[in-house]
């Protein structure tokens, strides 16, 4: 049959299983939008292309499928860049489709022409410039294949306008995709598996470092079986949260810059680190020269580029984590590490669980109150997305995640503005799941226009704004390292309640601890998106904190007397 390039695009997307597209139309992708009306795909009109990118990212992370975002050429395409980089750093499978000026104008500075493939080359897993109609179908199939296989990541397809408009005789080719040089199905050898088993058997103080790769490979069951059989405690990266139940006795909590103190000390004292699907990011290691000096290191990752990139390891196993763990489990013998686990418990001391109940009667509302009460009130059975900053770290500390794929945050790039649009994408992916986004007053204002998207699309997400009147994390650094010289961090915000109401949504304001739980409960039973403005203590800080470049065990601890007392678990 004879189809235009735009029709071929939609035919291919439908056959790839695409049901939802997030985007914004313009002149260079108008043929694509015109053809869209004839296909069974839901289009979500965002208020900014960055919002479309984050929604597609949140959709991908919540669903496990490839997300799709669209934009026109020039400023439309460049507005996607932050979202593309976010997806790249966090290994999210998203296909970005942009319109481009007609092929005869490319390279002549035509209206709204931008070399988007050149701009995004460093922040995509792969990208394409399509100038011929015949290339659209095969290129899109390759794009989806690359995005979802191996280490997932974003792929951009830039399509010239005349390629969208021209018509050709076309028949869908659903055969296997073969790409020279791209071999994502790698498996470690038998000798490497045996070497890993020998190192595990010899260890007296082993520790598992679990990253997002556990979630991406769906290796949660294998990780749990491994940890329980070998009796090895598990620490997680920020993006690994949820891959191992928070309430499991072997779960130590989060590592790194704002991780638990006992976790960082355990890493420094371990004699074997088992790094599963994590990349030894600088926020995890601190000073690499003093990182886990006494530990041998086994690193399992699907991306060979990550092995020995940041931390030199004793054994690198390249392959899908789930498959690799299954190979190891075939021969892994039960073990006991009673003394090591007892030592870690002793390091926890009376800081094992933070108790936010016992505060001085100063009438202040703390961010920890809000997040702790949200966790307790919802039973933790909600999908949480966050923005970036202090509230993100408090959420990682106080909202205990027992289930996988219920925690979505921007880790590698640290993108402010990620929270709200990613929550909308996640809710569209999982419409029966209650979704909350925890955001700061700074990051929320970057993409708050997407409230209008939620209203138009009738998407129900609950927004918890941790409003402290500052760019909080930057203010904290200024307090610690710049003698409280608060340059450009005090922030005046609009009336968030009125902002919500202006969009036809529900807005609430909370200023005291007593109001927190009723507001959370009301949000849960209210139709449509609810925005809650939590006015919290302005100059509270996230503890512990490893200063940039410091040794991992050299943490800044909460001053005594504490604002938020750390007590034993039986008091919470």
UniProtKB/TrEMBL annotation:
Listed Gene3D superfamilies: 3.40.50.970, TPP-binding domain
Cofactor: Mg(2+); thiamine diphosphate
A GO BP annotation: L-valine biosynthetic process
Domain (Thiamine pyrophosphate enzyme N-terminal TPP-binding): residue spans on this chain: 4-117
EC nos: 2.2.1.6
CDD domains: TPP_AHAS, TPP_PYR_POX_like
Cofactor: binding comment: Binds 1 Mg(2+) ion per subunit. Binds 1 thiamine pyrophosphate per subunit.
Catalytic activity: 2 pyruvate + H(+) = (2S)-2-acetolactate + CO2
Residue ranges the record marks as coiled coil: none
GO molecular function (one): acetolactate synthase activity
UniProt xrefs under InterPro entries: Acetolactate_synth_lsu, AHAS_TPP, DHS-like_NAD/FAD-binding_dom, THDP-binding, Thiamin_PyroP_enz_cen_dom, Thiamin_PyroP_enz_TPP-bd_dom, TPP-bd_CS, TPP_enz
Domain of life: Bacteria
Protein family: Belongs to the TPP enzyme family.
Record protein name field: Acetolactate synthase
Source species of the chain: Anaerolinea thermolimosa
Primary gene name: ilvB
